Description:
The complex is a heterotrimer of chains A (277), B (256) and C (341).
Chain A: H1 3-29, E1 35-36, E2 42-43, H2 49-54, H3 57-90, H4 93-104, H5 111-122, H6 127-134, H7 148-171, H8 176-184, H9 189-217, H10 221-225, H11 234-242, H12 248-276
Antiparallel strand pairs in A: 1-2
Helix pairs in contact in A: 3-7, 3-9, 7-9, 8-9, 11-12
Chain B: H1 2-26, H2 42-49, H3 51-84, H4 90-101, H5 104-117, H6 124-144, H7 149-160, H8 165-194, H9 197-202, H10 212-218, H11 226-255
Helix pairs in contact in B: 1-11, 2-11, 3-6, 3-8, 3-10, 4-6, 6-8, 7-8
Chain C: H1 2-15, E1 22-26, H2 35-43, E2 47-51, H3 55-65, E3 72-76, H4 77-85, E4 109-110, E5 113-114, E6 120-132, H5 144-147, E7 157-159, H6 163-173, H7 183-197, E8 200-203, H8 208-214, E9 219-223, H9 224-233, E10 237-240, E11 247-255, H10 262-272, H11 275-285, H12 292-297, H13 312-316, E12 319-320, H14 328-340
Amino acid sequence: xxxxKRNILLIPGxxxxxxxxxxxxxxxxxxxxxERGIYGGIDYNFNFENYSRVVEFTYLKILLNSSKxxxxxxxxxxxxxxxxxYFIYKAPAKxxxxxxxxxxxxxxxxxxxxxxxxxxxxxxxxxxNTILINLNIIKEPLNILYTEFSVIIGLIYNYxxxxxxxxxxxxxxxxxNLIEASKDLGGxxxxxxxxxxxxxxxxxxxxxxIFVFVLSIGNFxxxxxxxxxxxxxxxxxxxxxxxxARDWPFGASLSFVLISIMLFLLFLQSIFVRKIS
Amino acid sequence: MKxxxxxxxxxxxxxxxxxxxxxxxxxxKSGLPTAWGGFSFEWYVKLFQNEKIFKALTNTLIVATVSTxxxxxxxxxxxxxxxxxxVRNNIIEGTVFIPMIIPDIVxxxxxxxFFTLIQFTLGLHSIIISHVVxxxxxxxAVVRTRFNHFDHSIIxxxxxxxxxxxxxxxxxxxxxxxxxxxxxxxxxxxxSVDEFIIAFFxxxxxxxxxxxxMLIYSMIRxxxxxxxxxxxxxxxxxxxxxxxxxxxxxxxxxIS
Amino acid sequence: xxxxxxxxxxxLISTLPLKADIVVSNWDGxxxxxxxxxxxxxxxxxxxxxxxxxxxxxxxxxxASGGKGYDVLFVSSPFAEALDKMGLLAEIDHAKIPNMKHFxxxxxxxxxxxxxxxxxxxxxxxxGLCYRSDLVSGTxxxxxxxxxxxxxxxxKVTMLSTDRWLLAAGLxxxxxxxxxxxxxxxxxxxxxxxxxxxxxxxxDDTVFYTKLVSGEAAMAHAWDGWCNYATWxxxxxxxxxxxxxxxxxxxxxxxxxxxxxxxxxxAFINYILDPAISTWTxxxxxxxxxxxxxxxxxxxxxxxxxxxGMSINELSKNExxxxxxxxxxxxxxxxxxxxxx
Lengths: 277, 256, 341
C-alpha cells in the first residue's frame, strides 16, 4: 500500500480534529497572553504574567496533588481491570460481548446520579457503615466519604469500564499458539504471563491507564461531591477560572501548561515503548 | 476457572452496587436520597407524565448514536492509517491525543466561540459535531491496541497482492480489528450519553437541543429528583431485557 | 425558474421547527413547569424555556456567544451586574412592566442597581445557618458557631463553596463587609476559613439539606430558601441569620442586548410578576419573592417556614453582594488557596 493511500485514511479524522478542535482552541489559548478585564472580559494587553502565575506555589501544589490522585486511580483501575478483561476474554465466545455490555450498562445512567448513589453508600450514616456496625465489625462509623480515598474510589469506579474495554481489545488479539508454545517449552503459568501475555497486551494497559489518568486529572464533579470539595483537582481549578472567576486568560494558560505536560509525558512514553519492543 | 467466575462476580458486585442503591431510591417515597420514606411508585408515575425528560432522553440517544457512528468510522480509519505508517509521526500522535486531554470546559468555550465566529446555527447537530471530536480520539486509541506486527504484515501483504482496497478491508482488516472497533464504539457511546459541559455550551437554546445530562444538572438547585432514579432504573432494565433476549435468540439460532 | 425557487424556499422553510419568539433560560424547576403555555395563553407570545445548571455556566455561555440565542436570563445579582458591566444587557423599560407596582419599595432600590435599570428581581433572600435543633446544643447565633463549631458538632458542618459566599462567612465573622477588597482583611478571612476547614464535613452548595435530614450534618451554611427543603422533611431543622449580619442575595431576570424581541421579553417578565404567578413561586419553591401581594397571599406558610415570614426590614438591612471588579482575581486566588490547603 503506498503512502498516498495510507494518508487518505488519516485525512477525515485529522481534518475533523483540526477544524473543530485545534483551530477553535488556538482562538482561546491565545488569550493566555492577555489579561482579565475588570469585569471578566479580556484586556488586550500582551504579556506573560499568566504564565508566571501558573508556577505559584498554590497552583503547583494543586497540579501535584491532582497528578497523585489521577496516578493512583489509573494504577488501581489497571490493576483491577486487567484480570477482569482477561477473564472476560477467557469466557465462552458467545458470552464475551454480553459481558462487555454488562460492564458498560451501569454507565448509561447519569454520572451525577451514580455519584450521589456512592454518597448514599459511603456516608457515615450510610449503607456500608450501617452494615458494618450491625455485623459488629466496627463500633464507630468509619469516615470514608469526603476523603482522598473516596475520591479515588469514585474515579476508579467511573473509569474502570474504559480500562476493561481497552485491555480487552488488546488481550483478545493474543495468539493462543504462542501461549501454548511457551507452556509446552516448560514455562510456568506465571512466567508465561510475564514474558508472553503481558508484553503483548501492554498497548491496551497503557491506553487504559492514560484514559483514567487524563479523565481523572480533568474531572471536577467527583472531587466536588465525593471529596466534599476539600480536594481541588486541576480540572476544578481550570473550570473555576473560566466560569466562577471569569479569568479566561489565566484559565487558558493553565490549560496550555496542562496540555504541554501531557504531550511531553506521551512523548516519553512512546520512546519507552519503542525501547521495550 | 472457578476463580475467574468469582472475580467477575465480585467485579459486577462493585459495578452494580450504586445501581442497586439507585433502583431502591427510585421506589423511595421521600424525595431525599438519604432518608427512606416508604415504598412507592410515585416517581414512576411522575416520570411518565414528564414530557421534558423523554424529549431530553430522545435527544441524548440521537446525539450518542450519531456521534458514535461517525466517530467509529473516522476513528477506525485513523487508527489503521497511523498503525500502517512505518515511521512514528509525533505530530500526528499528538494531534490525536489532544481531544482526550483538553479540559472539557476549554473545548466547550472554544467551540462556542468558534461557532459564533463563523455564524454557525447551534442545535443537536453542533453537539454531535463536538462529541465526534473527542470520540474519534477514544475510538482511535482503543482500535490501535488491536494491532501488532503480525497483523500489519497480513494487511500489507493482501494490499500488495493487488487486493481491492475495499475487499481487503472487509475480508481481512475488519475481522482482525473488529473487537477493537466494537469496544471503541461502546466507549464512545457511553462517553457521549453522559457528557454535560460541551453539550451545554454547543447546544442551541431551548428544549429541542436539551440533552438528559443538561436537564439533570439543571435540577441540582432544587435537589436531584427521584424521577431521574426512576428513569435510570428504566434505562438499565430496558437494556438488560434487550441484552438477554438477543442472547436467547442467538442461542436458539445456533441450536436450529 | 424564479417561481420554482420560491416554492422550494417555502417548502424548505416549512420543514424548519416553528421559531420561538423568545428564549428564556432558567434553572429547571425554578418556575412553573407549564409557564410557557400559560404565558402563551395570556399574551399570544411563543416562548421556549431553556435551562442552565449554574449561574457560572450560563454566564460563560453568553460571554462566549456575545449573548446571542437568549432573550431573558434568570441569574443571581452579582452575575447580572457583571453582565451589565460587560455591556451585554438591555435597559429595562419600566413602562412595559406595569406589574413592578406589586414590588416592595426596597426591591426597586437595590444597592447594585438602583431603580432597576438592567434587572428585575425574581426572588430574594439571605444566607445563614441551617441547623438541626435536636443535634446542636443551644441556638447558634454567630458566624463563629459555624467556623469554630463546638466539640459535639465538629466534623458535622458543611459550608458553601461558591467563592463569594465562602469568603463572606469569613469576612462577616470578622465584622468586615461582604464586598471587602482590602488584601490584608481578605487574608485574615482566609486564615480563619483554612482553620474552619479542619472541622468541616464537606463543602456543599447543592444537597446540604439532604445531609441535615439524614443527620450526617448537624449544621449547614445555607441559603434560606434551600433550608426550607430540609425543614419540610424534618421540622427540627431551623434557620438563623447570625448576629454579625449577612448578605442579601437576589435572583434576577435580565434581558439580553442581543435580543431581537425585547417587547416580548418585557411581556414575559411582566407576566412572571403577576401576583398569581409569584404566589406559585412561594408556594412551590419556598423562596421569598419581592412581590407584596404574593407574600400576603402565602402568609399561611410562615409558621412552618419562619424564614419566609422574615420582615422586609430584617431582610433589607443585610448588605447586597456586588461585583468586586478588579479584586476578582484576588478573590479567586484566595478561594483556591483555601480549597487547596
